[in-house]
Design a protein that fits this description.
By secondary structure, this protein is of the alpha+beta class. It is built from five helices and six strands, in the order αββαββαββαα.
Length: 254
């Protein structure tokens, strides 16, 4: 009887032990690496990207110097100062050549090279011109349709831009701009003319002048008036002659 009891006890203990789950411990695996030490993979390294901040100043080189981009219609004037008589007014050949070129750029109703010329150069006949016509390079152009008294306002701005591209400082003078009752016209000064009067030089580069963005009319007090036509057209040949920084003070024989 005792033997039977012992047999059952041994069986019960064995069954109880087999019913418990097996707890396995993690085993660190080893990787066998063959070859030279340089073949051993290294641990990944974090890469830090640097972003340029405002404290880093870029270095400029001389190649970054800006260059002049001049209008495509710029053309160097001639150097011919022989005297012509056009519509009863004196002009030198250089000024007339510039008018002819302006006429090709303009192609409008106003006769730039003929009957529309109302005052030329080498004259002091009109006192209200401030002496700007006393030397070469000065010309006044009517803005009336030839043969009529009709002012062609739509033609004024295109003609002024054509004159400027041809090398003139040109402005529209409205009624009463110069004196009470003064007529409407376009006043033009040929840039770089070596025979310009001192007053004409002032209209180019003086304190009320074309190259500084003004309308060329002297003022008794206060600031000069801004150019109503958008500022000067500057060609490379003008810069080579010293404009726009050229002063109005050199002598006529310069």
């Amino acid at each position: 009887m005792l033997a039977i009891l012992i047999f059952f006890l041994i069986g019960w203990v064995t069954t109880a032990c087999q019913g418990q789950p097996e707890i396995s411990m993690p085993v660190r695996s080893e990787v066998a690496v063959t070859g030279s030490p340089s073949a051993i993979p290294s641990a990944p390294t974090a890469t830090r990207t640097l972003t340029q901040t405002s404290t880093q100043t870029p270095t400029l080189t001389p190649s970054n110097t800006p260059t002049l981009s001049e209008p495509p219609d710029c053309r160097i004037p001639s150097d011919d100062y022989s005297i012509l008589n056009i519509n009863g007014h004196k002009l030198n050949q250089r000024t007339y050549d510039m008018l002819e070129y302006a006429a090709t750029l303009y192609s409008g109703l106003i006769d730039v090279t003929g009957v529309s010329i109302t005052q030329g150069s080498y004259t002091s006949a009109v006192e209200a011109s401030f002496g700007t016509h006393a030397g070469g390079g000065a010309v006044d152009i009517s803005v009336m349709e030839p043969g009529t008294y009709n002012i062609v306002y739509d033609e004024i701005e295109p003609l002024i831009q054509a004159l400027r591209l041809a090398g003139f400082a040109a402005w529209f003078r409205d009624f009463d701009d110069l004196y009470p009752g003064s007529p409407v016209h376009i006043h033009a000064i040929a840039i770089g003319d070596r025979e310009l009067s001192m007053a004409a030089r002032e209209q180019l580069a003086g304190p009320h002048g074309y190259f500084w963005g003004y309308n060329g009319l002297p003022v008794q007090s206060g600031l000069p008036n801004r150019d109503p036509h958008g500022g000067p057209v500057i060609c490379q040949w003008m810069m080579e002659m010293g404009y726009p920084n050229k002063t109005a003070t050199p002598s006529i024989d310069e």
